[in-house]
Design goal:
CATH architecture of the domain at 40-129: Sandwich
Shape: elongated
Protein name: C-type cytochrome
CATH class of the domain at 40-129: Mainly Beta
Domain Cytochrome c: 40-131
CATH superfamily of the domain at 40-129: Cupredoxins -  blue copper proteins
Structural class: mainly alpha
Pfam family, one: Cytochrom_C
Strand order of the largest sheet: 1-2
Number of helices: 5
Largest sheet: 2 strands, antiparallel
GO molecular function, one term: metal ion binding
Number of strands: 2
Order of helices and strands: HHEEHHH
CATH topology of the domain at 40-129: Immunoglobulin-like
InterPro entries: Cyt_c-like_dom, Cyt_c-like_dom_sf
Helix content: 40-55%
């Protein structure tokens, strides 16, 4: 039946359909994955940041004894565009950064702290929740 319709009759519907599909799926409408991190994972990440003593170098909001000044403050980390000024900020990159920072930014002063990928995932969830 569609083949029997003239081209001019189908084109407006096709354009309207594409506009609705693209208009309804704009990137700003899709929440970033870290917004969906369970509260328990975010809380565990906060505790792990204290356990790994990240606060000896960084000031981190709501993390016990995290008042370091050697590294940058991690306040509002979820709003940052880049990690260490080079790597796009997001859950996957941040997890990799926490586990092996030198693999993403060779020569970085951020040391590898022996963090497991699972712990890094929770720590990233907390840091990305800081706005």
């Amino acid at each position: 039946m569609l083949a029997a319709l003239p081209y001019r009759a189908v084109l407006p519907f096709a354009v309207l359909t594409l506009a609705l599909l693209f208009g309804g799926c704009m990137p700003q409408d899709i929440p970033p994955p870290f917004d969906r991190a369970p509260h328990a994972q975010v809380e565990r990440g906060r505790q792990l940041l204290a356990q790994y003593q990240c606060g000896s170098c960084h000031a981190i909001p709501d993390v016990q004894a995290a008042r370091g000044r050697m590294g940058p403050t991690l306040a509002a980390f979820g709003r940052r565009s880049y990690i260490a000024g080079h790597v796009p900020n997001g859950p996957e990159h941040l997890e990799r950064w926490i586990v092996a920072p030198g693999s993403l930014v060779p020569g970085t002063l951020m040391p590898a702290m022996g963090v497991s990928p699972d712990d890094a995932r929770a720590m990233a969830a907390y840091l990305l929740s800081l706005e």
